[in-house]
Specification:
By secondary structure, the protein is an alpha+beta fold. It folds into 3 domains: about 280 residues, Bira Bifunctional Protein, Domain 2 (BirA Bifunctional Protein, domain 2), CATH 3.30.930.10; about 80 residues, Herpes Virus-1 (2-Layer Sandwich), CATH 3.30.40; about 100 residues, 3-Layer(aba) Sandwich (Rossmann fold), CATH 3.40.50.800. About 35% of the residues lie in helices and about 25% in strands. It has 16 helices and 24 strands. The strands form 7 sheets. Strands 3-10-11-17-14-13-12 form a 7-stranded mixed sheet. A 5-stranded mixed sheet has the order 21-20-22-23-24, sandwiched between helices. Helix 2 crosses helix 13. The mean pLDDT is about 95. Bound molecules: adenosine-5'-triphosphate (ATP). Adenosine-5'-triphosphate (ATP) binds next to strand 11, strand 14, strand 17 and helix 13.
């Protein structure tokens, strides 16, 4: 695995996985663009998630809801009131920080002082954060007393009292910009699922328990975007809302925890690198009954959230439904006089209308990329003493499945045959097959090791019957990325060979 974030950032830029957004104008903080290989890896991660969670289950439907949503959705979801992080300003230089990030970035002795002032142990950082967030006035005093430094200037800051900062992006809709004509870019894909609950139930005749899965962009105006693609302002999420009868929710919560850990494992992110955080009560989001955060051990950053698996109770459908008072809701919800739909489904046992409970496994695509890249990143010393960097990606995730390489770029016969092999392999539907005619075989191998291409197929003079060994005519060399073993295979066997290896 990678040992630092820097080596990943450098590989991503060098080989075309990830670029800074709007780079030629100096870049835009918190926005990234996925390059030629990044888009493939990202698509492969999303496809793997969709396969496991939609196609391989019998209790799931898919959805692709719109990004811009009616302001009433984000009002009744609770996001207008509570989707905020506490921030503090340094009066000395007008820099603004997210409170928990600011404290986390301090030296250990300063963190210990803050923790003590908040009546917490520095060992339990989530509890320190919860206490800071819950008591702004005390937090402000704690920052001062501990001599918290500004991470930018390095000097002790003069800190304001923490204030909530709403992270939603607002945008005007239509040509008239009056007070009413605005909407929000969704801060999570989840709300599109809740608002389509009735549509999906009515059009599919689903019964409890069942889920709706969605992959898509979400937007959060993070106060301090940082750590490469770990914390961005435009992100992508893979979310499931799994609807079940009240009382079965805790059981489903455990099942989903297990299912998700096993999925991560299949993407090359082992359980041993993921800590399960049972989020402390004080720190739960406004909708949550209980949440497991999967904390992956990122290089340089340490354990940080890659996925949250929340028991959202009947909060969301209960918040968006009409006739709330008749439905026996368990969650405390705000009154809703705007919704025109009753969001119930027959209870599987009594057949009486019920607002189901929801288990939500919510994973970030960008954070998944970072974890997958980090686990795959390998530095090896070869027998000849040379060092190579190789991305040992699972084949189903590799951006390029096979590179077909003519040994010499200026020999039409080799290039044409390589192209025709490439075209045939492409038809197998394995993913991207690349014709690599840069001419330097050593460089090509190095490049494909670094981008994780599982197999390189080389067309040489023997292949076209112009080498020393006539028995090698119509065969190619296949080089295995991980073992470096080279095998001679007949062109006519190539499809079957690669299909078996890459399926
Ligand atoms: P954090 O505490 O790190 O801000 P969160 O608890 O706000 O994350 P959730 O609201 O649970 O995150 O979102 C679900 C998932 O979406 C997260 O597990 C993460 O993978 C992803 N995610 C959330 N915010 C971001 C972001 N700013 N950049 C990239 N991915 C994100």
């Amino acid at each position: 695995p990678a040992t630092s974030m820097e080596e990943l950032v450098s590989l991503c830029k060098r080989r075309g996985f990830i670029f800074q957004g709007s780079e030629i104008y100096g870049g835009l903080q918190g926005f990234y663009d996925y390059g030629p290989l990044g888009v493939e890896l990202k698509n492969n991660i999303k496809a793997a998630w969709w396969r496991t969670n939609v196609y391989e289950r019998d209790d799931m439907e898919g959805l692709d809801a719109s990004i811009i949503m009616h302001r009433q959705v984000l009002r009744h979801s609770g996001h207008e009131a509570t989707f905020s992080d506490p921030m503090v300003d340094n009066k000395k230089n007008n820099k603004r920080y997210r409170l928990d990030h600011l404290v986390k970035d301090q030296k250990a002795d300063v963190i210990a002082k803050v923790a003590e002032a908040m009546g917490q142990s520095a060992e339990n950082f989530p509890a320190v954060v919860a206490a800071l967030n819950a008591n702004p006035a005390q937090a402000s005093e704690a920052l001062r007393a501990a001599g918290v430094r500004d991470p930018f200037s390095g000097e002790v800051g003069e800190w304001t009292e923490p204030k909530p900062f709403n992270m939603m992006f607002k945008t005007t809709i239509g040509p008239v910009a009056d007070d009413e004509s605005y909407g929000y870019l969704r801060p999570e894909t989840a709300q599109g699922i809740f608002t389509n609950f009735k549509n999906v139930v009515d059009s599919t005749s689903r019964r409890l328990p069942f889920g709706i899965a969605q992959i898509g962009k979400a937007f959060r105006n993070e106060i301090t975007p940082r750590n490469f693609i770990f914390r961005v302002r435009e992100l992508e999420q893979m979310e499931i809302e799994f609807f079940c009868a009240p009382g079965t929710d805790e059981d489903w919560h455990e099942k989903w925890l297990e299912a998700r850990l096993s999925w991560w494992e299949a993407q090359g992110v082992p359980r041993s690198k993921i800590e399960i955080l049972d989020v402390p009560k004080e720190d739960l989001a406004h909708y949550s009954k209980r949440t497991y955060d999967l904390m992956y051990d990122y290089p340089t950053l340490g354990h940080e959230e890659i996925e949250g698996i929340a028991n959202r109770s009947d909060y969301d459908l209960g918040s968006h439904t009409k006739n709330q008072s008749e439905l026996g809701l368990v969650a405390r919800v705000e009154e809703n006089l705007d919704s025109i739909a009753k969001l119930t489904i027959p209870h599987p046992e009594t057949n009486k209308p019920v607002v189901p409970f929801v288990i939500e496994p919510s994973a970030g695509v960008d954070r998944a990329m970072l974890a997958v890249l980090s686990e795959a990143f390998t530095k090896e010393t070869l027998e000849n003493g040379n060092e190579r960097i190789v991305l040992k990606l699972r084949p189903h995730l590799a951006p390029i499945k096979v590179a077909v390489i003519p040994l010499a770029r200026n020999k039409a016969e080799l290039v044409d045959l390589a192209r025709s092999i490439k075209n045939d392999l492409q038809k197998l539907g394995l993913g991207r097959i690349l014709l690599e005619d840069s001419g330097n075989i050593g460089k090509a191998y190095r490049r494909h090791d670094e981008v994780g291409t599982p197999y390189c197929v080389t067309v040489d003079f023997d292949t076209v019957g112009k080498g020393e060994d006539a028995s090698l005519t119509d065969t190619v060399t296949i080089r295995d990325r991980d073992t470096l073993a080279q095998e001679r295979v007949k062109i006519s066997d190539l499809s079957a060979y690669l299909q078996a290896k890459l399926r």
